[in-house]
Amino acid sequence: MTTTKTIPHDRLRAVVGDIFRAGGCEAAEARDIADHLVDANLAGHDSHGAIRVAKYIDWQQRGMVLPNRRLETLRDDGMLLMLDGGFGYGQSLGLQAMAAAIERARTAGVVVMALRNVGHLGRIGAWAEMATAAGLLSVHFVNTSGFGTLVAPHGGSDRRLSANPIAAGVPMPDGAPMILDMSTCVIAEGKIQVARNKGVALPAGAVLDGHGQPTRDAEAFYAEPVGAILPIAAHKGSGLSILCEVLAGALTGGGSSHPDNPSAGRLVNNMLTILIDAESLSGRAAFAADVARLKDWVKASPPLEAGGDVLVPGEPERRTRQARLAGGVPLDPATRQQIAQAAAMVGLDPAIVEQAAG
Length: 358
Fold this sequence. Notes:
The structure is a single chain. By secondary structure, the protein is of the alpha+beta class. The chain has 3 domains: about 5-60 and about 330-355, Malate/L-lactate/L-sulpholactate dehydrogenase, four-helix barrel (Hypothetical Oxidoreductase Yiak, Chain: A, domain 1, Orthogonal Bundle); about 70-185 and about 235-280, Ribosomal Protein S8, Chain: A, domain 1; about 195-230, Wheat Germ Agglutinin (Isolectin 2), domain 1 (2-Layer Sandwich). Helix content is about 40%, strand content about 15%. The strands form 3 sheets. A 7-stranded mixed sheet has the order 2-3-4-11-5-6-7. The chain has a 3-stranded antiparallel sheet with strand order 9-8-10. The chain has a two-stranded antiparallel sheet with strand order 1-12. α1 (about 10-20) packs antiparallel against α2 (about 25-40), α2 (about 25-40) crosses α4 and α3 packs parallel to α11. The N and C termini lie close together (about 10 Å). Belongs to the LDH2/MDH2 oxidoreductase family.
């Protein structure tokens, strides 16, 4: 277990699903979690992929995330849905919530869905992809009201905000949607974990150590006192992050990031989602024609570098997915070891990871 190995995605899904099923998740929920995590790897977002398995199992065994939860509907007023997840797995609860909101948007034209008190929702772009597959536009704001406070505000030096991702999806007439999936901080905490596992340096200008000094050492981020991630684009990213706290946290009732929250001892995500059927505004045909024209116009820009390419949101993930579907998901030795340890924690043979790698 000394080199990075590639594992076929179907084998990795089976291993991850077996671990969560052995850990107490119902078969459908285990499959939902495995699909979401491995799909993140396929999209190139390893920070939200199989590297999360060991952490999720640890949280579950400590009672910080609960298996097999069902959504509680707190409010249902036509175009408004307020749902509570009771601290269950974000992957399965996110699917339930998005399915309910999509069904409503198809009839109402527009729906605002507030989802609160769920475990880690994973790669938020996946929820935008789910909306575009149904022919709907979507915008998603997410915050963490539990212990996921990681980010320093503009001008600050310690953790006050969570990573606070924003995602959006635009269905396109060619079937390849535009998917924006971004954090409001320079680097996702999961990417710091990836760098730590690989033993590589962090990008410059992304992280402060616990003394408020810039660092490229992933270990320094986790040391005592803990470090902090910087917001993107200085005050602009900090402003967007605070907006996420307001929309995803305060407005949903899940709470903004604060150590005095009742749920501060566990990781809790909250998400505000807006779904729109273009037919209810400009009309689907006119909308499709205009966004297609926009995409063509943008991509026709002469590349800045010779041999370069002009990309629109979602294209990098599609390219990575195509390559990894064919060639497998690369997992470094530390990540494989962590997944093997998670297997052992739920009574499975830890060798299943290396066996999957062939």
